[in-house]
Write a structure and sequence with these properties.
Layout: H1 2-19, H2 23-39, H3 46-49, H4 53-64, H5 70-75, E1 82-83, E2 86-87, H6 93-106, H7 111-118, H8 124-135, H9 141-151, E3 176-177, E4 180-181, H10 191-194, H11 199-212
Antiparallel strand pairs: 1-2, 3-4
Helix pairs in contact: 1-2, 1-11, 2-4, 2-6, 4-9, 7-8, 8-9
Length: 215
């Protein structure tokens, strides 16, 4: 547990040095919390709640241009999702994530993806290959998503347990930063509070993770 907790802290610190105070950091923070809330709708579906967070982050990053696309800004549509009458409009980022997850869960085009998840496949770079051909006409779509995942170090967020184990069980996924709990009342962590940690601490945590649990 100590290694995992240090992993959480290390990933927060990495983002503090790369994205602190930028629109990109705000986008990533908001999307992580939206993923947490959306996954709770699928608490009994291990196929869906086990989807790597990095895969969701990677597709949203590409499709919405890190939250800057007109579709994301006007419609809260971060995945380029469409319906019979064109692009879908959502009331929140969470609804956009929830619909994206539901699409992967139910659409016949993603049966191969679901079968891969049933086999225990958790590698986002492999899972996107099952999605890409049906998701976009761009032949380089999978490559682009993989690029986003690598560029933004999104796999670091795969360590974060985002949903309770059971519907009736609420688990305190607190992140401890300088002995302070960085978590809000709805069980989401406060990345802005975590970003107050120093770059010197980042170096210590990175060295610790490399020695005990290399990524």
């Amino acid at each position: 547990m100590d290694v995992i907790r240090r992993s959480f802290l290390a990933l927060i610190l990495v983002y503090s040095s790369l994205f602190a105070g930028t629109p990109k950091e705000i986008f990533i923070s908001g999307l992580i919390q939206a993923i947490m809330k959306a996954k709770k709708s699928f608490a009994n579906d291990n196929i869906i709640i086990g989807i790597p967070n990095s895969l969701i982050l990677g597709q949203a990053s590409l499709e919405s241009d890190d939250g800057n696309s007109p579709l994301a800004r006007k419609f809260n549509n971060y995945f380029g999702l469409t319906g019979q009458n064109g692009y879908l409009k959502f009331d929140s980022m969470t609804e956009s994530v929830r619909t994206y997850l539901k699409t992967l869960k139910t659409h016949k085009a993603y049966k191969g993806f679901r079968n891969a998840r049933l086999r225990g496949e958790n590698n986002p770079h492999k899972l996107i290959d099952y999605i890409a051909k049906s998701y976009a006409e761009d032949k380089n779509y999978a490559k682009k998503v993989k690029g986003r995942i690598s560029e933004h170090l999104f796999t670091r967020f795969d360590f974060i347990p985002l949903v309770p184990k059971k519907d009736s069980e609420t688990i305190n996924h607190s992140l401890f930063v300088n002995n302070e709990i960085c978590v809000s009342e709805d069980n989401t962590f406060d990345i802005n509070e975590a970003l107050n940690m120093s770059k010197n601490t980042l170096k210590v945590f990175n060295e610790s993770i490399q020695q005990e649990s290399p990524l």
